[in-house]
What we know:
The chain has helices spanning about 10-15, 35-55, 100-110, 170-185; strands at about 75-80, 85-90, 130-140, 150-155, 160-165, 190-200. It is an alpha+beta fold. A 6-stranded antiparallel beta sheet has the order 2-1-3-6-4-5, with helices on both faces. Residues about 1-30 have low confidence and may be disordered.
Amino acid sequence: MKHGFYSILPLEMKSKLCCIKKDFVVLFSVNLILPGFIGNTAISLCRKAVEKYLTSGETIEGKNLPDVFGEKIPVFVSLKKGNQTRGCAGTFSLEDTFAENLIHFSIIAAAHDTRYRPISQQELKDIRIQITIPQQTVEIPSIEFYNPETEGLIVKKQDKLGIVLPKEAKTSNYALRIGLRNAGIEDKEGIKLFKFKAQIFLEEKK
Length: 206
């Protein structure tokens, strides 16, 4: 069973996976645009974190980084192989720093996303890292107000919630189906829809 872009993980990792409150729509109001060099540094940090974990099982520390990495910034880390996703994990929470989130969710995406087999050291050279930084969520009255090419989607009903990142679906209706499925929602009556913009950094092809 999976919820949105979050896998069911070992207990010790669940606590940091996604801290979404029932009133999560006001959980954060970050409209932060980061410069390109910060995105490149973030991608480099993610790759180092995955390489270290896959080779030794150890977690790196984020040291000697620009000040913004000490700020509390929500983030999603996706691992791409060609046009396929090989792992994805992230959070809307402002509980941890940008560096902590990047390291933590890179490791989850690579080794603990139960939707996919773990990434091997040999496969890592073919993986491109994508970092998605979500911005403020906005409630929308219907799916017609959502653009899957430029916006993420959140589908919520009571305590069930599904998330679709920008560009993960070709059409808005397909994104809605994905969100409902990921949240485990069978009856659309009473659902709430939210959209969000995001800044995306994608590692260059090698």
